[in-house]
Amino acid sequence: MAETSQKALQQQILIDDSSIPDWLLTEILQRLPVKHIFKFKCVSKRWFILISDPFFARLYSTRINTSLSTSQPWNLLFRYLYEVRIVPSSMIDTRIALKQSQDFSSPGLSLNFLPYSKHDCPIKILASSNGLLLCCETFYWQKNYYICNPLIQQWIALPKPPKAIKSVAVGFICKDGHYEVIRFPTANYGPSNTLRLETFSSETGKWHCSIVNCPVLDYYIKTDSPVVHYNGSLHWLEFRHSKIITYDPHSGTNTGLHLMNLPDDKQSEHLSLLGVSRGCFRYFEVTDTCFGPRDLRVWVLSDYDAQRWCLEYRIKFSGSWIDEVNEFIPKDNFYIFPLALHPHEFDIVYLGYGGCLVSYNLGTRKLDVVHRNFYSHQLLAFVFSPWPTTIPQPFW
User: Fold this and answer.
1) What is the total count of domains within the chain?
2) What residues does the F-box domain cover (predicted)?
3) Which letter, b or e, does each residue of 287-316 get, where b requires 16 or more Cβ atoms within 10 Å of its Cβ?
4) H or E element: which one contains 52?
5) What is the pLDDT of residues 253-264, one digit of tens each?
6) Calpha distance 219→15 (Å, rounded)
7) What's phi and psi for 61, nearest 5 deg?
8) pTM of the model
């Protein structure tokens, strides 16, 4: 009896916070990991009110940004593999987190909460924006789209788009609690310079179809390179004319697609990608594929309106690798391809090299192996928002 009373007293002491003022409890909660904060909203009505207050979110974001010195947590996401694979930034160079890995299920990031990942169906990560991911079940004939926050495991399914299209270029923008999904065909071979563009808006809960102008008749978009949201517009690499296709969904009457120039001295047509590092728009390419000298080159867009590019790095692969790399990667007949730019460090890029995922420091010329036996061509640098973006509940 005495033992039962003691346990009840201990439980009461643990949950009785009536003597703690709101300001002190807020200070305590701000220092908890963000993944746990959302679970603690269920502790009591008082905790729910404090954590749900926008003031708490602003305080938490300010503290995170100050402590991290502008380097928000981020992950490398594998976009199109048949398992959901994620490389956490805190574990780069140590291991890859596989779906259903017990060793990583608690502290890490997973997409297992999405409905079709439970049945081992392929989940495709199409784009990210403001801490949210846009996913789909299939690569071709996309119809079932999901928007999710992998940190707090919240997700919604979008209504199916009005028309079935075999291959689409997809963009995703989330801002101020509102999000949009934009899609249109990846290629156009017809005689007309107009195309059908479909936009889903969370404000209306519906897909809207419009006919927009396209600056070229025979464009072809690289879907293996992630769409980049920068300066209010979406950017896709265009293959056939070696351009960037851009679209600004909020440009008023001027709502067509536009072309943007790539660097004049670029060489690679296939092994290239766009990205953003520390707020700068960059173009990253590897020249050649298998034999002969190979160059790694990175440009930064110094003037967006004038489309002026500045070459930051040009590195010849021959002689640039450290000796220990040759212990496990053959010297001849190897394949190199760009995978991602580091979102916070100008000097670090990620490459596929000799069947490995490697990080390469452009300044020190040091190469580190992240993972062996790696052959994927699609990675996405996913940066968490300082305060998790919640998805408005659907009304459709």
Assistant:
1) 3
2) 14-59
3) beeeeeebbbbbbbbeeeeeeebeebbebe
4) helix 45-52
5) 557 899 999 999
6) 62
7) -65, -40
8) 0.79
